[in-house]
Amino acid sequence: MECLFGLVGKDFAITVSDATSIQSIVVMKHTEDKSRNLNKHIIMLYAGEPGDTVNFAEYIQRNVRFYEIKNGIELSPQAAAKFTRRQVAESLRSRQPYSVNLLIAGYDVKTEASQLYWIDYLGSLIEIPFAAHGYGAYYVTSVLDRYYYPQISLDEAKVLIKKCIDELKTRFFINLSNFKIKVSNKDGIQEIVL
Amino acid sequence: MSSEIDEYNGGSVLAMLGKNCVAIASDKRFGMKLMTLGTEFPKIFQATDKIYIAMAGLATDIQTLSELIRYKINMYKLREEREIEPTTLAYMVASTLYERRFSPYYVSPLIAGLDKNNKPYICNMDLIGCVTTTNDFVVGGAADDCLLGTCEALYEPDLEPEDLFETISQSLISAVDRNAASGWGAVVHVLTPERVITRTLKTRQD
């Protein structure tokens, strides 16, 4: 029931996660942050089995950080995504696999380009211009298919994100009232409100 | 649509034998059951200058296995100080798959290549590494039954590279256009002793 999505623009990546924390039929919280920053430029969104999600996200976050301290270089979004994919894929065939769906978005300082990676709980990794997880994907991808174009500007992307959220609010049967929106560009990661 | 795990992400692959050449092709779709998520998902991997591997099946296993095979090919090259031969590679992949006999990688790999005497070779195998070598064509993936039909109708032996390209392309396009889990463009490699011809194809976008 959770919804994560994101898109890549001209020189930035923007991500959206719903801020609703649900247990059984009860909404526990409207301000849950379902994201972790892996470094200065990489955002990771997560959804899935409660417990697994935060545990896995922080495991990745700290291992990416550890790699950067050990080697003295910042990991690119691609490298972080491929490392994460492998951890999910290895966990899949373990006794107790993590059930976590992820989006990794970021700005690559070296190539000066933004990327978005979609990873599911099986460990499939794809790089795409826009992506979504959860039931919300059925609504959001349709809107993005219609209005997204490569090299979209940040201002227009914000309008587009607003369109996606409005669609979810009108057509999705779960009341997702609040969303957390993050932007990653050359200056780092900022949380924004529309 | 099948509920089988090997057709969860969709995708199809195909290889054909020509006169002193081989061709290998795949579609580009990545989906989750009926929903298409990506249209640039590579299913063909270069093993050496003259050997390519294509894999259809569960995307996570395609990625994991292709990385594992790349590692093994690199180790082989370092240890032996020569390039691996197509048949050797086929049995290397097969034993890698059989190691996982009771929790397999859900993939159907195809191998197409030219050996050290530039003799063309193709084979396919099942998910636990049972190798089948043929002297015409091999297929795999969600549209494998469609592919078998189109190949059976269009294939003829001893085709020159350009004719082989046309035959493999038309066989793949006809088959994946009829299969909901495959399509969204295709990639074709034709391997000749002199060079590798790589072309991308447009197919139906639905």
From TrEMBL, chain A:
Q: Which GO terms describe its biological process?
A: proteasomal protein catabolic process
InterPro entries, per the entry = Ntn_hydrolases_N, Proteasome_beta2, Proteasome_sua/b, Proteasome_suB-type
The family database entries (Pfam families) matched by this protein are listed as: Proteasome
The record ties this protein, via Gene3D superfamilies, to: Glutamine Phosphoribosylpyrophosphate, subunit 1, domain 1
Superkingdom is: Eukaryota
GO CC annotations on file: cytoplasm; nucleus; proteasome core complex
Q: Is-annotated flag, keyword Cytoplasm?
A: yes
Where in or outside the cell it occurs: the entry states:
Cytoplasm; Nucleus
- Description of how the protein assembles with itself and partners: Component of the proteasome complex. The 26S proteasome consists of a 20S proteasome core and two 19S regulatory subunits. The 20S proteasome core is composed of 28 subunits that are arranged in four stacked rings, resulting in a barrel-shaped structure. The two end rings are each formed by seven alpha subunits, and the two central rings are each formed by seven beta subunits. The catalytic chamber with the active sites is on the inside of the barrel.
Q: What does this protein do?
A: Component of the proteasome, a multicatalytic proteinase complex which is characterized by its ability to cleave peptides with Arg, Phe, Tyr, Leu, and Glu adjacent to the leaving group at neutral or slightly basic pH. The proteasome has an ATP-dependent proteolytic activity.
> Know the name of this protein?
Proteasome subunit beta
UniProtKB/TrEMBL annotation, chain B:
Q: Where would one find coiled-coil regions in this protein?
A: none
**Which InterPro entries does the record associate with it?**
Ntn_hydrolases_N, Proteasome_beta_3, Proteasome_bsu_CS, Proteasome_sua/b, Proteasome_suB-type
- List locations, semicolon-separated: Cytoplasm; Nucleus
Q: Which GO terms describe its biological process?
A: proteasome-mediated ubiquitin-dependent protein catabolic process
Q: Which Gene3D superfamilies did the record assign? A: Glutamine Phosphoribosylpyrophosphate, subunit 1, domain 1
The UniProt keywords, alphabetically, are:
Cytoplasm, Nucleus, Proteasome
**Gene Ontology CC:** cytoplasm; nucleus; proteasome core complex, beta-subunit complex
Looking up Pfam families in the UniProt record yields: Proteasome (PF00227)
Q: How does it assemble?
A: Component of the proteasome complex.
- Say which family it is in: Belongs to the peptidase T1B family.
Q: What does this protein do?
A: Component of the proteasome, a multicatalytic proteinase complex which is characterized by its ability to cleave peptides with Arg, Phe, Tyr, Leu, and Glu adjacent to the leaving group at neutral or slightly basic pH. The proteasome has an ATP-dependent proteolytic activity.
Mind telling me what this protein is named? Proteasome subunit beta
Lineage, broadest ranks: Eukaryota, Fungi, Fungi incertae sedis, Mucoromycota, Glomeromycotina
